[in-house]
Design brief:
It contains four helices and five strands. It is α+β, with helices and mostly antiparallel strands. It has one domain: RelE-like (YaeB-like fold). The longest helix has 16 residues.
Length: 113
């Protein structure tokens, strides 16, 4: 999948080992890089959801339309489909098999809000 970032700052953090370590610590920085590589290697969101690691899942409530993958408890990598319009099934729900581009929004502990 193609990965874009929601901000230049996040792109800089994710593309620089030094910035990643400064922001998230050495272990989390490494794990973020692994997750980004796994997302990029997948052809579609459906492939990511089917993977046995990372626990990729759709979020609810005010985060509806976003997805999360585990980095290291409690941190998650948060992203959304970056299609306009978002691909849907006949019933109107998201079609993860057609999502080939994502926008990374953040790496955070969203349960700590």
């Amino acid at each position: 999948m193609e990965i874009i970032f929601s901000s230049r700052k996040l792109a800089k953090i994710c593309s620089s080992e030094k910035e990643s370590i400064r922001t998230w610590g050495k272990d989390n920085a490494r794990r973020v890089q692994v997750r980004l590589a796994q997302l990029q290697a997948a052809e579609t969101l459906a492939d990511v959801i089917a993977l046995p690691f990372g626990r990729c899942h759709a979020l609810k409530g005010d985060r509806k339309g976003q997805f999360s993958v585990d980095v290291r408890h409690p941190f998650r990598l948060i992203f959304e489909p970056a299609h306009d319009p978002v691909p849907t099934k006949d019933d109107g729900g998201l079609d993860p098999a057609k999502v080939t581009r994502i926008r990374v929004l953040s790496v955070e502990d969203y349960h700590g809000d």
